[in-house]
Design brief:
The complex is a heterodimer of chains A (204) and B (218). Chain A is α/β, with parallel strands linked by helices. Chain A has one domain: 3-Layer(aba) Sandwich (Rossmann fold). Helix content of chain A is 27%, strand content 25%. In chain A, the strands form 2 sheets. Chain A has a 5-stranded parallel β-sheet with strand order 5-6-7-3-8, with helices on both faces. In chain A, strands 2-1-4 form a 3-stranded antiparallel β-sheet, with helices on one face. In chain A, a hairpin with a 2-residue loop joins β1 and β2. The mean pLDDT of chain A is 88. Chain B is elongated and about 55 Å long. In chain B, α3 runs antiparallel to α8, α7 packs parallel to α9 and α8 runs antiparallel to α9. Chain B is built from 9 helices and no strands. Classes of the chains: A alpha/beta (204), B mainly alpha (218). Chains A and B meet through β5 and α2 of A and α1 and α5 of B.
Chain lengths: 204, 218
């Protein structure tokens, strides 16, 4: 579904990763690992088409991709249900109930997003993935501010998505509790800075 | 895209959405100008078209920086860029929503304020017509400026500097239409030019603004 070949990506005009290559088939889960600043977010944004590729190819149907970043894209003055209905309508879907049940938001449906806790907002942000009806989920640190129970819910939702022929790329530092996940350590693709005119980020 | 329009209108009407900001500003201008220049009716009648148009223009400008900035900050713009919505459509809908919340109410309220500025009786119809035809251009030009400055913190100043020169033709033809209408002259020419600016903006600027957004999302 997603094939990445010899990809180089840049952040703020600096190449951060090069030679990245992997393939993703239906039902695959790829976990991106690497220290802060290695380029996980940049890689995900490039795959989502938000950033141009520097080199290499990303072969994917853009119509099948959805992205979930650090920010959830929620509107504080809309209720939980209204937020989901908006994203469902944008993606030409109508059903939001499965998403609400999957992330345990039933009791919070009529509450304004402004009145949710950080973890509840995150759950709403993750529920948004379900209402898009898209197959490939690109997720950037999806478990931030989630408690253990919610991480479990998220794991179950992700597993159900994979079982239905979906695929996901997740950048995370924690163990999702999904043994089928393939791990890709991005440190190996990090641009070597020992060439001439090496750039030191501290003096940028 | 209707969902986006609906959401934007709903957000504008809810608490803190900024609906009424432009209207209140417009009202203040129209109330304060007679107090500032004195109660001389003839003078007010002469400057009323210009003052009303300047007031409408600045009232529009006031809410422009929120057009994309809020969606940019909470990540919704990224998600829309990945969604099936074309960014051109997003811009067009946002400009339309902006017009419905600012331009249209301004046009409807303008006759009342014209009274405060003792606008000549012949001018009222032309005032409303000119505002209805001209304010869409203000929202569309504004959407382009807002798209260019979306990533900037406190981009309001640079936004005004970019947008104001582009507002000048609309202001000139708008005020001229009302002035000619008020003295019983031929107001159709400036009115048609105003409509042409709005239509031209609607045809070109959503594409320009979408390109600017794409560049700013990188």
């Amino acid at each position: 579904m997603l094939n990445v070949h010899d990809l180089a990506v840049s952040r703020g005009g600096l190449t951060v990763l090069e030679g990245v290559g992997f393939g993703l088939a239906a039902g695959d889960l790829l976990v991106l690992r690497g220290p802060n600043g290695v380029g996980k977010t940049t890689l995900l944004r490039t795959l989502a088409g938000l950033q141009p590729t520097l080199e290499g190819r990303v072969a994917v149907d853009q119509e099948q991709i959805t992205y979930s970043g650090h920010a959830d894209g929620l509107k504080a003055t809309l209720t939980v249900a209204e937020n989901l209905q908006f994203w469902a309508a944008v993606h030409g879907q109508t059903a939001i109930d499965p998403a609400i049940t999957a992330m345990d938001l039933t009791a919070l449906q009529a509450r304004r997003a402004a009145d949710l806790s950080a973890g509840q907002k995150r759950r709403l942000g993750l529920a948004r993935l379900l209402v898009t009806g898209r197959k490939i989920w690109l997720m950037d640190e999806p478990t931030v501010s989630l408690d253990a129970a919610s991480v479990g819910l998220f794991g179950a939702m992700l597993r159900a998505h994979l079982a239905q022929g979906g695929a996901a790329v997740v950048a995370t530092h924690i163990d999702l509790g999904l043994p089928e996940a393939r791990v890709l350590d991005l440190t190996q693709f990090k641009v070597k800075s020992n060439r001439k005119g090496a750039f030191d980020e501290a003096f940028a | 895209m209707m969902a986006l329009l609906q959401r934007d209108l709903r957000l504008a009407l809810r608490a803190g959405g900024g609906f009424g900001l432009g209207l209140a500003f417009f009202l203040m201008v129209a109330v304060l100008v007679p107090l500032g220049v004195g109660p001389e009716g003839a003078l007010l009648t002469r400057i009323a078209p210009g003052i009303l148009w300047i007031g409408a223009l600045l009232a529009c400008l006031l809410s422009l920086d929120r057009m994309f900035a809020l969606d940019f900050e909470d990540g919704a713009l990224d998600l829309m860029a990945v969604s099936p919505l074309p960014l051109e459509g997003v811009v067009a809908m946002k400009a339309l929503a902006h017009w419905v919340v600012t331009g249209l109410p301004l046009a409807l309220m303008a006759p009342v304020l014209g009274l405060l500025l003792s606008l000549a009786p012949g001018g009222y119809v032309w005032l409303v017509a000119a505002l209805v035809l001209g304010t869409p251009a203000l929202s569309l030009i504004g959407s382009f400026g807002a798209a260019l400055t979306v990533g900037l913190k406190r981009g309001g100043l640079i936004l005004s500097l970019i947008v104001l020169p582009m507002y000048v033709p609309t202001l000139i033809f708008g005020a001229e239409a009302v002035r000619r209408g008020a003295v019983g002259g031929d107001a159709m020419v400036p009115l048609l030019l105003l409509a042409a600016i709005s239509l031209g903006s609607a045809a070109i600027l959503p594409f320009a603004a979408a390109a600017a957004l794409r560049a700013n999302l990188k």
